[in-house]
Amino acid sequence: MGSSDVVIRRATPLDHDTLASLIAAAYATLDDERYDREALVAAMPLMSRPNPLLLACGTYFVAELDGEPAACGGWTREEPGTGKVKEGVAHIRHFAADPRFARRGAASALLRHCLSQAHAAQIERMMSQSTLPAEPFYAFAGFRRLKIVEAKMGEGVVLPVVLMERAIP
Fold first, then answer.
1. 103 — alpha (psi -120 to 50), left (phi > 0) or beta?
2. Cα–Cα distance, 27 to 131 (Å, whole number)
3. Tell me, what CATH number does 101's domain have?
4. What does the pLDDT look like over 66-97, one tens digit per residue?
């Protein structure tokens, strides 16, 4: 099954519970020994739930395969964690793929959709704070690693992530 079978639709607040399950299943796969176990356990409840602001922003999406949510994610002009906006720059936000649909093209189609939309909005550069295991996914899509940064997940909870970028031609 290829990405031509993927249906992408805008997420809404009504998707909260469905996406909470999808994100929790996806992020459970992060426990592959790249992260400190204690830090990951502390961060999981904070990072594995949908952000209501993203669900309502209009640039957050659900990719469906066979009528089921297979991946979610989006982009915003606002930088995660700071809310800062820089002209011509956008940020990939809270991508997740249900492990049941791994390697079936949903997340890739969704990323292409986000890049296309950002291009239409005159975005020139897309940034991503990738989890360590997801770095190859973004690299395959043309993102390049800038550096490792600490993502604050909550009070005293931080995880290393890979800050990546790519031009949007």
1. left
2. 10
3. 3.40.630.30
4. 899 999 999 999 998 889 999 999 999 999 99
Residue 133 lies in a domain: no
Where is 132: in which H helix or E strand?
none
Q: How far is residue 15 from each of residues 34, 119, 131, 161, measured CA to CA in Å?
A: 30, 26, 23, 26
pLDDT digits (tens, 9 = 90+) for 105-159: 999 999 999 999 999 999 999 999 999 999 999 999 999 999 999 988 878 888 8
Per residue, the 3-state secondary structure of 29-79, as one string, reads HHCCCCCCHHHHHHHHHHHCCCCHHHHCCCCEEEEEECCEEEEEEEEECEC
**Is position 57 within any domain?**
yes
